[in-house]
Amino acid sequence: MKLQHLHPLAAELPDAEVTGVTADSRAVEPGFVFAALPGSRADGRRFIPQAVEAGAVAIIAPTGTKADVPVLESEEPRLTLAEIASRLHHGQPAHVAGITGTNGKTSVARFTGQLWNALGHKAGTLGTLGAVAPGYDYALRHTTPDPVEIHQVLSTMASLGTTHLAMEVSSHGLAQHRADGVAFSQGAFTNITQDHLDYHPDFEDYFKAKLRLLTGLLPEGRTAVICADGAGADRVMEETRAAGRTVFSTGREGSDLKLVDLAPTPTGLRIVVEADGRSHELHLPLIGAFQADNALVAAGLAVTSGHDLAAVLPCLAEISAAPGRMEHAGTKRMAGGEAAIYVDYAHTPDAVRTALAAARPHAEGRVAVLLGAGGDRDRAKRPLMGRAAAEGADLVFVTDDNPRTEEAGPIREAVASGAPGARIVANRAEAIGAAVDALEPGDVLIVAGKGHEKYQIVGDVTYPFDDVAVAGEAAKAASVSA
Ligand SMILES: CC(=O)N[C@H]1[C@@H](OP(=O)(O)OP(=O)(O)OC[C@H]2O[C@@H](n3ccc(=O)[nH]c3=O)[C@H](O)[C@@H]2O)O[C@H](CO)[C@@H](O)[C@@H]1O[C@H](C)C(=O)N[C@@H](C)C(=O)N[C@H](CCC(=O)O)C(=O)O
Ligand SMILES: Nc1ncnc2c1ncn2[C@@H]1O[C@H](COP(=O)(O)OP(=O)(O)OP(=O)(O)O)[C@@H](O)[C@H]1O
Ligand SMILES: N[C@H](CCC[C@H](N)C(=O)O)C(=O)O
Ligand SMILES: [Mg+2]
Fold first, then answer.
1. Which of 4, 165, 177, 315 gives 20 to 30 Å between its CA and that of 285?
2. Which SUPFAM superfamilies match (predicted)?
3. Which pTM was predicted?
């Protein structure tokens, strides 16, 4: 594609044939445009000489940047990169729902994809679990990858015939304009509570970043499905309406798909929903009351994408949870009865609270929890996660969860400072073993924080580690044989 046709900022530049775009100088090939972005660890402008050496024909960079090749000077270079990536790797599924919120994005994306597939579409998902569509499965390092990767994935999915995509949009992704080149047809907002205050200067900045999906990236006149329950939901709905987008609200406080009753059953949740002036009773094959909120947001996306409620609701009976979200990992069998062990991806204070509340109705005995907190991430959430654990569980084990480049001991101490009486066991496998050993008949254990993750990151090394496998083995080892 011709450089001049790529972007208005290039219209007056000398012409060149462009073969690709990247923000990483190490990935530049002849004919590429290199986006030189000031970052948190490095300044991309330092790598302009290497990029030119490798064959870059133009540079995207902040206003005032000089180079030996033409420069697209931009006040918002990350936005310009996203716009150019979407033009170069053009084509996307015709219908894209963007999903944000602190917790529940992966679950909503997965449910929405399942509903669309059940309704006869070729649907995919993009987010924490990678990019997945019929005939396509691609691993991603980020929930919302950088714009070049987003548009390569979207373009491939479209060429494989995917018509509908449910896409998670993280606050980092929003703050860094990673998804600004995507044409969203619908938006969704699950909830907002504390996370990522290592990256966002304060909660307000985090809130505004998330809101931008609905008030900025989603075009005016489009519909946003919003869970009306929880702190912040009123403001999200108000600002979304004020920005000229239509709100479809769900949950106990919702007015379009209203949850009026919920009861756990041995295999899931029985819910009653009011919609279109009628009451509908449904069974969801999902463990955890919070999953009803996620399922209703997904149902809202399916309905507002053009399906009758009467067609959508029966499909909810067939949905399945994302791996690592209240996933049953094993059962400890003892002389007097059994104790169940679930793995859950709760890694924020609110998610820990929610997961433990979800476990309580399934426990005839005590609720136990095992948790840690990630290194190189929000430090302020650590004692709050500990406190949520102490308040929601009868037994707390604190251990490691991806210490990354931080010293693990102080992270454990910070979590435990919110949970007096917690047992601290550094090694995660040993901690899981100790927690399983402590279980008595009727107890339920939640192994929190890593969910589907198959690794433990210590320093810069990623070791294989799988909560589901380790907990399953521990349950077997601790069980009395029949
Ligand atoms: C804080 C953060 O989000 N940082 C992301 C951001 O990095 P950055 O812009 O600060 O990059 P930097 O390392 O300072 O480098 C600046 C620029 O120089 C370039 N560079 C660097 C070295 C070199 O030799 N040549 C070169 O061109 C880099 O490519 C970059 O463009 O852009 C990079 C390229 O896209 C990302 O890899 C990086 O993700 C870091 C590693 C990360 O861990 N991000 C996590 C926290 C994240 O994004 N998580 C969210 C949310 C998770 C959730 O709640 O679900 C996600 O969407 O996954
Ligand atoms: N609607 C909800 N309300 C509160 N907590 C929830 C909700 N949905 C999920 N959770 C909790 O959050 C955890 C993560 O869920 P999920 O992976 O769906 O969220 P996410 O927003 O995609 O997370 P991430 O930001 O890491 O990608 C779950 O394991 C559960 O503990
Ligand atoms: N997307 C989240 C995942 C956190 C999962 C938890 N296991 C951790 O490492 O903190 C993050 O990167 O903050
Ligand atoms: Mg996710």
1. 165
2. MurD-like peptide ligases, catalytic domain (SSF53623), MurD-like peptide ligases, peptide-binding domain (SSF53244), MurE/MurF N-terminal domain (SSF63418)
3. 0.93
